[in-house]
Amino acid sequence: MKQIIFILALFIAASVHAQDAIKKVIVETYYVSDANDATDTIGGFLEQSSKTYRVFIQLQKGCKLTAIYGDANHALKFSSTANFFNNLDRGKTFGKDIVKSNLSNNTVALDSWLTLGQTSTTKNATTYFGVLKSSDTDGSFIGGMNNDGGSAGISGGLLVNNDPLAGVPLTDADGMDTLSNVPANWFSLGFVDLISGVDSTIFGNAKQSSEFISHNAQLRNSGVSGVNPDSNQVLVAQLTTKGELSFELNIEVLNADGSLKKYTARKSSDSSDVANSGWLKYPFDCGCNDPNYFEYKPGLACNNPDSCKKKIVLGCMDPNSCNYNPSANYNVQSLCCYPGMCGNRDISLVCPDLGYHSLTLKIFPNPVDDKFDINISNLNSEQVLLKVYNIYGNKFIEKNISVSSDNYTENIDASFLLKGIYYLQITKSSGMQVTKMFVKN
Question: Domain 357-440 is in which class?
Answer without folding.
Answer: mainly beta
